[in-house]
Write a structure and sequence with these properties.
The chain has a single domain (about 5-85), classed as 2-Layer Sandwich (YaeB-like fold), CATH 3.30.2310. With about 90 residues, the protein is an alpha+beta fold. The longest helix is centred in the first third of the chain and has 14 residues, at about 20-30. It has 3 helices and 5 strands. It is about 30% helix and about 35% strand. It comes from Candidatus Gottesmanbacteria bacterium RBG_16_37_8.
Amino acid sequence: MHKILIGKKAVKFLSKLDPKSYRIVSDAINKLAYLQTLKNLDIKALKGKFENMVRLRVGSRRILFTVDELKKEIKIWIIEDRGDVY
């Protein structure tokens, strides 16, 4: 199980969500803690300026994060709508 760390920009986006959207996104974030055992999440490694990051697709939103296997940590950097993140 990984520890989840959330950056300031991601927290700011989460604070603006309505309760239903917040629950959907937070449930997806909680599932990330079990990254090795879950295969049904839409996760993809990114290229270009986000080369070291991985994205999780949750509906029309994208969660960009990095994984540190040595520390067993997942750092969530950005949560944005699809058109705004890339």
